[in-house]
Amino acid sequence: MLSLDAPVSSVALRKSGDYVVTLGTRFAALKWKDQSVTTFVHVDKDKPNNRFNDGKVDPAGRFFAGTMAEEIRPAVLERHQGALYTLFPDHSVVKHFDQVDISNGLDWSLDHKTFFYIDSLSYSVDAFDYDLQTGKISNRRSIYKLEKEESIPDGMCIDTEGKLWVACYDGGRVIRLDPETGKRIQTVKLPVDNTTSCCFGGKDYSEMYVTSACQGMDDESFSRQPQAGGIFKITGLGVKGIPPHSFAG
Ligand SMILES: O=C(O)[C@H](O)[C@@H](O)[C@H](O)[C@H](O)CO
Ligand SMILES: [Zn+2]
């Protein structure tokens, strides 16, 4: 076990072995064997109430992650405090944009020409044109607006058919979206309301893992949803995920 002085909001593999993490408002290298954490870069230095949230490595080995203000309670926070960043393999950092509420799920299309992104409180899944050569994003547009019962979009991943899976916080489900048509094509409900993220794993990435939260729940709702805070495995979906990319720095 390794105890750290700030919340770890995302973890990615590193080509050289070990991991890169977002920790508080820092991008850092984590060496499990040495039990060490080394900061690459500190972001949002003028915003002491901020922290990183979700992050993922792009197909060229760059680490994307976004920030948010610390929540007063789930989904309640000072708005527009977050930003989306990239940590490049040379350990430089670029801010893509700010004014983010809750920087959340992200992934890339299978042809690497589109970047998908969720700012949770926009209740939207957005797409950008993606330049894999430079890591630049442009031409933001919404590809799906969540329906009322789907509540808040949170974590996201892509499958081998190029369809997006989005965990719905307070919606108790993951939904599968077709980014081409902007339509929802599948809903899988879970026995907890606060589903937070999803990814594929297991044999050939044929199983889906879904995380959930129990933060902010009172005794009554916890007794109704005793599995809140657990991680679920969904089998038999009939669709697979893709292996994660490793940070190239
Ligand atoms: O996991 C996250 O993305 C955030 O850290 C959480 O705070 C919740 O998911 C959020 O409240 C729902 O939008
Ligand atoms: Zn999230």
TrEMBL record:
<dbReference type="InterPro" id="IPR008367">
    <property type="entry name" value="Regucalcin"/>
</dbReference>
<feature type="binding site">
    <location>
        <position position="154"/>
    </location>
    <ligand>
        <name>a divalent metal cation</name>
    </ligand>
</feature>
<keyword id="KW-0963">Cytoplasm</keyword>
<keyword id="KW-0479">Metal-binding</keyword>
<feature type="binding site">
    <location>
        <position position="71"/>
    </location>
    <ligand>
        <name>substrate</name>
    </ligand>
</feature>
<dbReference type="GO" id="GO:0004341">
    <property type="term" value="F:gluconolactonase activity"/>
</dbReference>
<keyword id="KW-0862">Zinc</keyword>
<dbReference type="GO" id="GO:0030234">
    <property type="term" value="F:enzyme regulator activity"/>
</dbReference>
<dbReference type="GO" id="GO:0005509">
    <property type="term" value="F:calcium ion binding"/>
</dbReference>
<dbReference type="InterPro" id="IPR013658">
    <property type="entry name" value="SGL"/>
</dbReference>
<keyword id="KW-0378">Hydrolase</keyword>
<feature type="binding site">
    <location>
        <position position="53"/>
    </location>
    <ligand>
        <name>substrate</name>
    </ligand>
</feature>
<dbReference type="Pfam" id="PF08450">
    <property type="entry name" value="SGL"/>
</dbReference>
<feature type="binding site">
    <location>
        <position position="51"/>
    </location>
    <ligand>
        <name>substrate</name>
    </ligand>
</feature>
<protein>
    <recommendedName>
        <fullName>Regucalcin</fullName>
        <ecNumber>3.1.1.17</ecNumber>
    </recommendedName>
</protein>
<dbReference type="InterPro" id="IPR005511">
    <property type="entry name" value="SMP-30"/>
</dbReference>
<feature type="binding site">
    <location>
        <position position="104"/>
    </location>
    <ligand>
        <name>a divalent metal cation</name>
    </ligand>
</feature>
<keyword id="KW-0106">Calcium</keyword>
<dbReference type="GO" id="GO:0005737">
    <property type="term" value="C:cytoplasm"/>
</dbReference>
<feature type="active site" description="Proton donor/acceptor">
    <location>
        <position position="154"/>
    </location>
</feature>
<dbReference type="InterPro" id="IPR011042">
    <property type="entry name" value="6-blade_b-propeller_TolB-like"/>
</dbReference>
<comment type="similarity">
    <text>Belongs to the SMP-30/CGR1 family.</text>
</comment>
<feature type="domain" description="SMP-30/Gluconolactonase/LRE-like region">
    <location>
        <begin position="3"/>
        <end position="213"/>
    </location>
</feature>
<dbReference type="GO" id="GO:0019853">
    <property type="term" value="P:L-ascorbic acid biosynthetic process"/>
</dbReference>
